[in-house]
Description:
The complex is a heterodimer of chains A (331) and B (315). Chain A has helices at 20-28, 42-45, 53-57, 87-98, 102-108, 140-149, 178-194, 205-213, 232-235, 254-264, 270-285; strands at 34-36, 46-47, 50-51, 61-66, 69-75, 114-116, 169-174, 197-202, 219-225, 289-301, 305-306, 322-323. Chain A is α+β, with helices and mostly antiparallel strands. Chain A is globular, with a radius of gyration of 22 Å. The two termini of chain A are 25 Å apart. Chain B is mainly alpha-helical and 315 residues long. In chain B, α7 crosses α9. Chain B is globular, with a radius of gyration of 24 Å. Chain A binds chain B through residues 15-19, 21-22, 25-26, 28-29, 31, 204-207, 209-210, 213, 224, 227, 244-246, and chain B through 32-34, 36-37, 41-45, 48, 149, 152-153, 156-157, 160, 163-166, 257-260, 266, 269-270, 272-275.
Amino acid sequence: MKGKTIPQIDRIDIQVIEESQSAWLSFGKGELDMIGLAGQFAPMALTGDRLKPALIQRGIRLDRLIDPSIAYYFINQQDPVLGGMSRERIALRRAIFMAQNDEEMIRVIHKGQAFRNAYPIPDGVEGSDPNYRSVLNYNPREANHLLDQMGYAKGPDGYRRLPDGKPLSVRYTTSLSSQDRELDEMMKKSLDRLSIHFESEKLKFPEIIKAERQCRVQMRLSGWIADYPDGDNFMQLWYGPHIHENNGSCYQDPVWDRLYEKTLTMPASLQRDTIYRQLARLLELNGVTKVSTSHIRNVLSQPWLLGYKAHPILPSVWSYLDIDDTQRPKP
Amino acid sequence: MIAYLIRRIWQMIPTLLGVVLLVFFLFNWVGGDPAYVLAGKMASPEDIANIRHQLGIDRPLWEQLWIFIRQIVSGDFGDSWSTHEPVSQIFRTRLGPSMTLLIPLMILETAVAVLMALLVSAFRGSLLDRSLMVASTMVMSISLLVYIIVGQYVFASVLGWFPVKGWSQQLSQNLTTYAVLPVLLGLLVSVAPSLRLYRTFILDEVGQDYVRTARAKGASNSRVLFRHSLRNALIPIVTILGLTLPGLFGGALITETLFNYPGMGLITVQAVQNNDVNTVMAATLLIALMTITGNLLADLGLSFVDPRVRLGGKS
């Protein structure tokens, strides 16, 4: 693109293709110039983190970067069954989080295009901590032990009950997509490890957001991608005054809020990072959230597409692109 | 005929009113609230309240119903809640692509199903008849979704006979290039039930006394089939054809989504996913209107195929 004025392309045709198979086959035939690779097709295009030789031979390029995003489980702190700050409830939530097998999630759902990230601030965002060690790693044995200790005894049906003998079940909210059906199956498996009844709540995405903001979601795997590359964009997800906004876990803790408010007056610094670590630890200890994974973004482009460079936050790369018509197949 | 048409159109009004009420209350009940998504990631409750106010969904139900009826009468359904494009504009631009798929499909399906039904009726009980009936049952047992996924892979990706997906601004290119695979796959699925049904209609006629009389008078097989049996079998076929168009639209939801075809089907699916109730309600009304109009066209068609039917007069 050196020496060229921008933009070089008169018309950009952005196609929202609902079915990833259509997108993948269409790209394979050269009908699309570039494509964001859906996770399910990663095994067909990639070996590990490299493009398959057949695609390299065709001149196809891979741009791969870590998305500044997190996928995190949260439990509604105002929920009458799972919420509250008693020792039993905190233990129950921590046990549920410890039954989630993140590695299996990466393998089965994301086809390897994600990695375990326990810290609320992802890589590439100011304030991230690659050395953070979670206390909520996958450990079903420890989780069961915790529940036994706290009086969540099993009933005659083999499933655990609340310490007061009332039935216990976890309602997990997901959307109607096929990937979310897989998430349901994984959650069912996780709760079976603890002998806890699983309930599925299926809602359309806008309804999930509404329910979340009204503190009606009991448990969900949510996601957040950076709007700006600073840790505050992620930590605000658990700030008390953000209940009914982005604080889907409806978590309100004066200690946490005071610490967070302190960071608002601080520049990005080691001191602020120290407080962020305290905040992250409190979220785990109180059984509010478990950060599960961060995702890898794979963008494939045809040999005739020039000038593409993936950017973690800026989505508008269009003005920097050009097409080499001599290489592009004629329709 | 004109008097009959006016009477039928007049009769459509209470039916449409019933549909309007049903659509309105149904979507108010299950339609959901799009304000939470439209407000974006960092929205406050005030932002959401503002959006609800802009969309008019904070008003009393009767007021919303009145607005909806006014929109229908004026043909202006307001703006899409998710794209902010006028709904009437969406329909204007999306109806063409859908018809590029649906009209060829309907014509081909009718022609192929009728011809094949005549063929198997002529050889009733033969190996050809039984093989086609078994094949029809097998074809009907598999979902359109499977045909499209396999068809895209085999015919478009591996063999390269068709594009995987796409759409052009030129009608001729769409008809000869982009619509071919979706239409052929749609035909594969829709022709089987029609064939079985039309075969029954034709066989019913083949067993009638007038056919026996025609044969006794020395009429050839083809004359008996085309001149006598088919003309009478066309009566139920035309009735069914009138009801086919809305059914085809249902298939377009899947076909257009998988072929990324910018028609009514794709926009309806996207509107449902985005809780774009304005667009979904308008699309539902359009399908209802297509059903009622299809019925009317079928009745009008009957008067052409059956001389005994006299619309608006004594039969």
